[in-house]
Amino acid sequence: MNLAIVTGDWDSLREHAQALRIDVFVIEQGVPAELEWDEADEVSTHAVAYDDAGAAVATGRLLPDGHIGRMAVLKSARGRGIGSRVLHALIDEARRHGHRAVVLHAQTHALAFYALHGFIERGDEFMEAGIPHREMVLVLDSGAGEVADKAHP
User: Fold this and answer.
1) Strand, coil or helix: what is 150?
2) Residue spans of alpha helices (H) in the chain
3) Could you give the CA distance from residue 97 to residue 44 in angstroms, rounded to a whole number?
4) How many helices (H) and strands (E) does the chain have?
5) Cα-based distances in Å from 64 to 29, 40, 84, 149
6) Which end of the chain is less packed: N or C, by CB atoms within 10 Å?
7) In the CATH hierarchy, which fold is given to the domain comprising 4-150?
8) Backbone dihedral region of 51: left (phi > 0), alpha (psi from -120 to 50 degrees) or beta?
9) Which residues contact 3 (CB under 8 A, 6 or more apart)?
10) Whole-model pTM above 0.85?
């Protein structure tokens, strides 16, 4: 499968990122729509994956403080490495922005996925939008300990 990953701001990717997040988070996972949208969308770098037919199949975002979030892959597109490609695009963006580490809140069912990409669990399980999560961190260079320790959602 050919896959195009496009990164950009909310204005340029909103239509597709928003539709994906509604499908995955609001409809599939039952997250209340009012919890899905926040002010971070406007200041984040977004990534959207498009399949061979040009359909948007996955999305994620990188906040200015180095947090990755809102990773979503359509159910019909899972298991094909698309989430990995979006995650790597966001990690590359973090490096370009000079972040020494990235932090994310992983749904507990996705811990193994992020661990495969080098993320380490940190802290206790917590609830977010009614779904159990764990914080995870990926160090991008050796000076990241201080940055990662100070990172917050």
Assistant:
1) helix
2) 10-21, 33-36, 40-43, 82-96, 111-116, 144-150
3) 12
4) 6, 7
5) 26, 9, 21, 16
6) N
7) Aminopeptidase (3.40.630)
8) beta
9) 49, 50, 51, 52, 57, 82, 85
10) yes
Evaluate if residue 24 carries a pLDDT over 80.
yes
- CA pair distance 74, 28, nearest whole angstrom: 10
Three-state SS for 27?
A: helix
Q: Note the pLDDT tens digit of each residue in 70-113.
A: 999 999 999 999 999 999 999 999 999 999 999 999 999 999 99
Contact in structure between 3 and 49 (CB atoms under 8 Å): yes
Give the tokens for residue 74: 């359509």
Which residues are registered as beta bridge partners of 65? Answer: none
User: Which residues contact residue 55 at a Cβ distance below 8 angstroms, ignoring those fewer than 6 apart?
Assistant: none
Q: Considering only CA atoms, which of 59, 50, 62, 75 is closest in space to residue 21?
A: 59
